[in-house]
Amino acid sequence: MGCGASREVLDEKRNNDEIDNQLRKERMNLRNEVKMLLLGAGESGKSTIIKQMKLIHDGGYSQEERESFKEVIFSNTIQSMRVLLEAMEALHISLEHSEYQMHSSVIMNMPSQIEADSLPVDVANAVKALWSDGGVRECFRRSNEFQLNDSASYYFDSIGRICQEGYLPTDQDVLRSRVKTTGINETIFRVGELTYRMLDVGGQRSERKQWIHCFENVTAILFLVAISEYDQVLIEDDTVNRMQEALTLFDSICNSRWFVKTSIILFLNKMDIFREKLPHSPMKKYFPDFEGGNDIDAASLYILKRFVSLNQSDAKQIYTHFTCATDTTQIRFVMAAVNDIIIQMNLRDCGLL
Fold this sequence. Notes:
It is a single chain. By secondary structure, the protein is an alpha/beta fold. About 45% of the residues lie in helices and about 10% in strands. Helix 4 (about 70-90) packs across helix 7 (about 135-140) and helix 5 (about 100-110) packs across helix 6. InterPro entries: Fungi_Gprotein_alpha, Gprotein_alpha_su, GproteinA_insert, P-loop_NTPase.
């Protein structure tokens, strides 16, 4: 009788173990889909990360897709030069070469959107000449005082290649192209056993009200900050420092009731621009308590601590990376580390770690 009871207990335990294992497998299958929300203020680099995922995990861009970026690149180039010329007037900076006024007129008379298969020769010549002008360069050095695309100097330096007949945008050309994100854009890609659904939402204030629809069942948040924008103001409000806005936004996301159990991965992005800018634009001018001078490591760590210190939960971990979103090699490495974090989270949630 005792043996029979023991056998029944063993059979019941075996059945329970099988059910538990099956439930674990089902939970793991559900966890194989990763819903990652990309958040951050406008122009922090979210759309560039999405483009990198296509390059790294989705076979890159076809010739037809590359062709479709030409008009965006042409428009970005012309619009950036127009912004510089308008800023020169506002800042009372004159052209070093007065004869370049004809080139200035060419740029100012162009439409904001270019619909052409190639960049007009007179426009290319105008960009090339103006970019060599001392007055334009002086204005460019003061670009934190107005709104200029980060890609401006890249496209100006590349104008000889961009204007050639038969031009086809490179990966780097595509990565640096800028179109304001409106609405919610989803990108799906696989990394090993995991399927990622990465949601990119507009970062400007007017777009943020749409984020609420993305909050359900989020595996992780990838929050981007343009670390180089410590000395710039918002496009939508020129009384607000961009870094202060990013800190306020991160605080609201990190400590939101929606994300009590959601891990946050923080990318302090645009480190390349930050390194170039810091020696000429002291951080202490914008953050008076910073005492690190022009030391890039001290400045980076200061900003990182400002963000991490906003976390009010001992249970929530914030994973941080310093990034340059246009560097494919680095982003491949960083996203592999992010993928490892997601796997560890899944194993922990399923009770397997």
